[in-house]
Amino acid sequence: MAFWIASSPHNHIQSETSQLMRHVIYAAIPGIFAQWYFFGWGNLIHIGLAILTALLCEFTILALRNKPISKELFDGSAILTAVLLGICLPALAPWWITVIGVIFAIGIAKQLYGGLGHNPFNPAMTGYVVLLISFPLQMTTWQPPLSLLNIELNLSNTLSAIFTGFTLEGYSVEQIRTGIDGITMATPLDTLKTNTTLGLTVYESMTANVFGDNFALGWEWINAGFVIGGIYLIIKKMIPWQTPVSFLAGIFICSFIAYSINPDSSPSTMFHWLSGATMIGAFFILTDPVTGATSIKGRIIVGLLAGLLVYLIRTFGGYPDGVAFAILLCNMAAPLIDQYTRPRTYGHTKG
Amino acid sequence: MQSILERITSGKFWSFHGGIHPPEQKALTATKAIRTLPLPKQLIVPLQQHIGGEGDLLVNVGDKVLKGQPLTLASNPMALPIHAPTSGIITAIKKSVIAHPSGLSELCLFIDVDGKDTWIKRNKNQDYQQLSSSEIIKKIADAGISGMGGAGFPTHIKTNSAANIDFLIINGAECEPYITADDLLMTEQSQAIVDGINILKQVIAPKNILIAIEDNKPNAIKAMEIATKGLAHIHVCVVPTKYPTGGEKQLIKVLTGKEVPSGSLPINCGIIMQNVATCFAISQAVINDTPLIERVVTVTGQALDTPQNAWVLLGTTIDFLLSQFSAQPLESGKQPVIMGGPMMGFGVLSEQVPIIKTSNCILIPSKQEMPSAFDRQSKEVECIRCGECAVVCPSQLLPQELQWSAKAKDYPQLEKLNLRDCIDCGACAYVCPSQIPLVQYYRIAKAEIRQQQILDIKAEKAKVRFEARKLRLEKEKIAREEKQKKAAAARKAAMNKATPEAANAKSAVAAALARVKAKKAGTTTAAAPESSKSENNVEDNTQKSQVAAAIARAKAKREQKNQTKDRGNNANTTEDKPPQDSAIESTADNTKSVASKPDDKKAKIAAEIAKAKAKKEAKSAPSITQSTDEASTEAPIPATQSDNSQADDKKAKIAAAIAKAKAKKLAKSTQANQSTDLEVTSGNADVDANNTTLTKSEKKAAIKPSHEPNISDNIGSSNTDPSNTDSSNKTQNQADDKKAKIAAAIAKAKAKKLAKSANENTSNNANNNTQKELT
Amino acid sequence: MSILIAIAVVGVIAALFGALLGFASIRFKVEADPIVDQLDALLPQTQCGQCGYPGCKPYAQAVADGEAINKCAPGGEDTIKKIADLMGVEVQPLDESHEQDNRPKVAFIIEEDCIGCTKCIQACPVDAIIGAAKQMHTIIIDECTGCDLCVAPCPVDCIEMRVIPETTQNWQWDINSIPVKQID
């Protein structure tokens, strides 16, 4: 009879990285559903296209790097990156935007740095930022919610718009964006920014119909969807609660201070929380373990920092939404934060 | 301290960072009483079963031993004796696989059990209060008790400390899943354990005694509370269940809120911890005079039919245990067998592994309950820095950073990250979603660091010794020179003195010189050095001849080695032959053309080389097998003859010398051959690329045949000459003797010459090669 | 004129700082560990002479003077790497003339063959062999550095280099052996 030597521990919790990734993807479903409900098929098509590109890209590079393809291709990380990037893109952006973004995210931001676990920057956000800087026109042609459109945007129309730039009836993306009143519509954040620079108060701007009844038509429900997913992840202990909580707290602190000083030019905390990419950033992107801080203290610091940066960029920066930039900046700071938030080892005195 | 006690009595405890809750699976065995097993047929008792040294053997193969009889004697404080677990006969003392993660073999005693279980005479002593501390400690040491929780540190050393002890903590936490040995022991033997605690109290005199039990052992808690009723100084502490609460440092933190400083021992904080099983063993040893020969072992796991705790004799093999607890034998190579718990135990390599003092559990899991134990291949994927490991680490380390540094072998960084505070608990690896065997990496790194430290110390020592030696040699040299100088000065002074005494001295010196000269003259004819030795007795001769024989033997050995090497070479040369033959003509032309050129020197060199090569070749080919035989047969002959007479002795020496010469020659030639062959092959490899190198290599080989007969003749004569003289020597004539010596000397010289030429040749070749390539 | 003043001012400042620096370099001189000692500390101190120098210190001196860093066989790759780090040069593979078998070894005297010639004692650089003329010699294993300098001088070839056997004391967890090691 012969046995074998194995290193302890012999038991294992039986969790796997791919399982974690899968759960994060599942958790994004409510948000994606809300997105589909308010903005149509556009993002679903982008997500599908992104997944396809991501797998192809990952496969090619893994093959080039002589890595075990079957094991790493389906660990879920590439698919998750693709899903997140797909969610973030404007619904009617042309197809090549997705392809370029994903190739950059997977090929350069992830694999060139050594693959999963070694990338210093969140791949989805890196891809997004590259697109935003390189193709500002396509990346800011946000489509208004379906209910505000005067052109019916069904699946085939959306497909056609994404791949040819025109719907089947021959409307261009620009024409789709034009509202009933003949004014090109933008996102609530964008609108607010433009209006405040025009001298309008927040209250006055909020009357525009992109804001809907509450804070931001459509966007608030999408963000709510991501909150639901995020809470599911926290309950499942797939993501630490400290990061999103401190991030939202960071935004709250900044916006609260600004609102109490000057309510006319500062939107409320709820507007900040429920518009743009706040919630997906809080629960899905900032919590990416690879690029975040590892210690609990570090995570809180990263969250607060990200909140501050998001607020600063939204208020004073050139771009209407700053989640992607804020997260990349935090990624940069994470190793340093880790360095200074090392826990005190048992039996050692602090310092 | 009062506040600590208050907290404890009110049931509040501190908590340590991290920890996990793996499936406990204690219900498998917790409800069943401890079983008594029949005697096994054979016991395998390792000499060393704890941390520290092994004792000196007291028994031999064939001895009959009684139960409890000491088998070894502890020769140093860290060593512990072992005892015969039952009566029987020692059938073997040999290396066998032991209970160690390495699966290495160590010295074990094999005892054939006679089945009578006869005790050695015991001296039971109920009244331990009368014993002094040192007597108790001696009893503990003689009983061979080591920590029975896992590490196996000798108990008498831990107990024998004069420090002021605030807390004696009795560790009954048993936080490892599956194991219930301590639980059952506390339930069934609570009184004996309390006796043991009282004995410890008498020795250590602690201010407080705490018995820590995790709250998942209600029976044990009840039993211990009943047993300690009325003992005010003993507190039973029910601590929350969490792995690894049973770790020494963790339990101290939980009970007292103190942290043992890194690199320090609990004893320095006034705390001593003992396992409950150790306490039981102490009471057995002191009160019943029963050494540590058996222990409770949890035999568990869902792959067994009847998992249960059992009293197991030390030395019982896993094989026997399995046969007692499972109806059908395990599938070989498919079933993991773990000694210890699932978190910190180790896989055993063979069913012959015996139970030792520290084995508290044998775990045979089924595939459903512990799939990861069946994974033969690591399922490791990249770390995603999720930080789970840092969350559960009871030492508050950063396991993922440690892992990176361990993989990068960055030992200074590991030191900085406090790797040495890792307690190997395995919590990090348990929760890792990437299934990285973190503990494994740390173990390797720890071992490497330890090894490096040992090497550093050794290097430092070697340096000191080297320096000391250099200094000594220097001193000796100076002293020698000094002495010589002095002697010379004294001589000069004596010579220069013009007094008659001096003259006398001078003449005396002169006379002495003359005497010496005369003696020399006399002895040269009588084979100078031997003449004085001839007065020596026969014993000396035999000694000397033995020396000669030894040398000859060594030579023969070397030769054999060379021969085997040569075989390989010969194979090479035969392979190389065809191209050489085909190129003879071209080389002939080539030499001519070279000769006609102004640089005929080069040609000459080439010719020389070729000649030498040929010589070597010829030599190595025919003579190797012969001469090795000769050398090996010749060697013993002189050894036997030398006993008879002086002349024979001399002969033996000559023979030895010849053998030596031959051996040397052969060795050299084969060496040379090797190198030349290498060159030839390399030359051939160059053929396509470079014409000049082609001709060179061919030239070398081509001229060989023409010289071959010549040289082999030469060698033949040099081989036969000495043997001829050898035979003629039997006349015991001194002159003959001389001749023989001369012959031997000639042979030696020849050998040397050949060797030298061979050496030169190779170097020449090398030079030549480079020259040619330059042209 | 103003140019001249500027030049003068800059010149004076330069001279001042130069003097300051010069003074500082003398006043606050740090006794750096000489490079040879640092190198010597990296070498394994087997004193084996395989590098072609009579001991580790001479080789350290030689490396400091520009000798190749890859001649220390007992130290192996690790030592080469460390020396390369210290000297700021490229890591080189171990000199090919050395054997590749770098397992730690100690000398062992086959005692029945020993004739007591003391040659090995004279060869041992760390005095790790004890014995006297015509008496059997033996190795102090703990002191032996495994340099194999004693093997060649032995006239009866009774010294062998033996690999230090693996025991539970010096056994190391080995990643390669862990999941796959199997004995039948």
From TrEMBL, chain C:
- Keywords assigned by UniProt, alphabetized: 4Fe-4S, Cell inner membrane, Cell membrane, Electron transport, Iron, Iron-sulfur, Membrane, Metal-binding, Repeat, Translocase, Transport
The yes or no answer to whether the keyword rRNA-binding is present is no
What family classification does the UniProt entry report for this protein? Answer: Belongs to the 4Fe4S bacterial-type ferredoxin family. RnfB subfamily.
- Main localization of the protein? membrane
- According to the entry, every stretch annotated as the 4Fe-4S ferredoxin-type domain falls at 105-134, 135-164
Q: Where does [4Fe-4S] cluster 2 bind?
A: C114, C117, C120, C154
Q: Which domain of life is it from?
A: Bacteria
**Record carries keyword Manganese:** no
Quote the subcellular location field of this record: Cell inner membrane
Query: Could you say which residues bind [4Fe-4S] cluster 3 here?
Result: C124, C144, C147, C150
**Region Hydrophobic: start-end pairs:** 1-25
Q: What is this protein called?
A: Ion-translocating oxidoreductase complex subunit B
Origin species, per record, is Colwellia asteriadis
